[in-house]
Amino acid sequence: MKKKLLSLLLFAVPVFTFAQEKGIDEKINDAFMPVATWWEGFILTTVPIGEYNVPFVVILLVLGATFFTIYFRVPAITRFSTAISTVRGKYVDIEKHGVDKLYNNDEALAVEDIQDTIRDESAHGEVSHFQALATAVSGTVGLGNIAGVAVAIALGGPGATFWMIICGLIGMSTKFVECTLGVKYRDVGPDGTIYGGPMYYLSKGLKERGLSNLGKVLGGLFAVLCVGASFGGGNAFQSNQATVQLVSLFGLEGGSSGFIIGIILAVLVGIVIIGGIKRIAKITEKIVPFMAGIYIVASLIIILSHASYIDDAFTLIIDGAFTPMAGLGGVIGVIIVGFQRAAFSNEAGAGSAAIAHSAVRTKYPASEGVVALLEPFIDTVVICTMTALVIIFFNIDGTNMQSVFQYGAAGDSSSSVLLNSDGSSIGGVDLTSMAFDAVIPGFSYILTIAIVLFAFSTMISWSYYGLQSWKYLFGRGKAADMLYKILFLIFVVVGAAATLDAVIKFSDAMILALVFPNMIGLLLLFPKVREEMKRYIRAITIKKEALEDGHVDVTEHM
User: Fold this and answer.
1) What span, in angstroms and rounded, lies between the C-alpha atoms of 225 and 68?
2) In the chain, helix, strand, coil percent, each to 5?
3) 199: domain range?
4) pLDDT at position 3, please?
5) Alpha-carbon distances of 445 from 247, 299, 400, 417, rounded to whole Å
6) Read out DSSP for 23-44?
7) Which of 309, 322, 347, 436 is found 20 to 30 A from 213 (Cα to Cα)?
8) Domain count, the chain
9) pLDDT value at position 120?
10) The whole model's pTM is what?
11) What are the φ and ψ backbone dihedral angles of 227, each rounded to 5 degrees?
């Protein structure tokens, strides 16, 4: 199978080379740009709030997250310790076998019996809590954390960081809801393969509510949008940005080198995605800690080297959140920038992460819901905040930023590009790179490695999201499966070698479009999440009471 895919990619070499020489990609781009611009404008339709035009999708995300936060009593705080315990495997016994069997029946507590049969009695699922979390995190942690934060601070000042953190905290509630539903309404194939995500809880969950037709429409719409998003924002855009960084850093020739990099990325991605979610999970559970570790360690070096400025930085963040800097345009402007960047970064409400979390091994859907809480926390509260501190330290005296642009610079907070007064552009990643290089000379090379790893992990995660949606639309046959994977690998090369900005713009907007069908489902099905949470907490309580009565903790023997 691998040889067939490699042969296909090699066959594509003369095709793409011809396309580049003749400028076909530019012609396609020019023809498709009006459609892409219309689609992006439609998805980002704005609502006037005072003197600002706020994308309706951002309002929907923030209001939905706020509602879930209040309804579930701030799970980011009240369920955080449960999330840590769950991902560490503290409750793996009841998640595999059910609390009634293990702790309400003395015979089921026989240690030797558990040791002999533990692996044969596992619940449905293909990956562990940590693997599911790693896969989902790898799909969101990326350029949004590197370039997006720089854009937010340049546009909104340090105060934008405060609102990014707030949005990340309330976004944890949305992840909790959608990932609990993802496990509850998943399908399990005859061979144990898991099929899950919003398309399933929209169709099956709304059918339970007597809204079968609405569920079918929303489920199908989500699947179509997710397939498009997987080809563009989750794939071509990632390979394009990774290629741009490599070409720029090492001074490579544009055209041919981009194609070669695309082929290499496609082969590496192909080797991983052929193995399905189990192989994807095994790779992401290694890559995510490694790439996040590199970035976090570098950030900590800079933060600790500026320890005396930490209190000053947080003062700027808090003061700037409520008393914006001159020229910024008001508190509402800072809030909008912070919320929008956070929403684009962690994708809470888009529903994509629920596809990865659905594959977890557990009998209690809410167990994965609480684990999903950690995703926006890692993505936005931790990594984005670290990036923000590095950039604020870089401009702590207000002079370094002025060499590039001042706070409140022209730009679009939905993109990763800023404009100088002369109209020239600078990428947010360049600003982040300058901030790191100011303390760690040569860090731009490390940052490039991090970007490539971020891009690679995002691509393999989104390949799974897209494939699950593809199967929902076209069936679960091997031919349909292979067709999707081939198309996905071709888009890896297209993103790296061509300049199809319109195609990427069009499909990238599909990630945000996922919010509309998904949030409708969440707002109709959230009472089910409350039922599942009560069931899981009751199971944990029964286990604790059983251990207090002297029963054996079977977790130690698993």
Assistant:
1) 24
2) 75, 5, 20
3) 2-557
4) 53
5) 12, 15, 21, 21
6) THHHHHHHHHHHHHHHHHHHHT
7) 347
8) 1
9) 35
10) 0.86
11) -60, -45
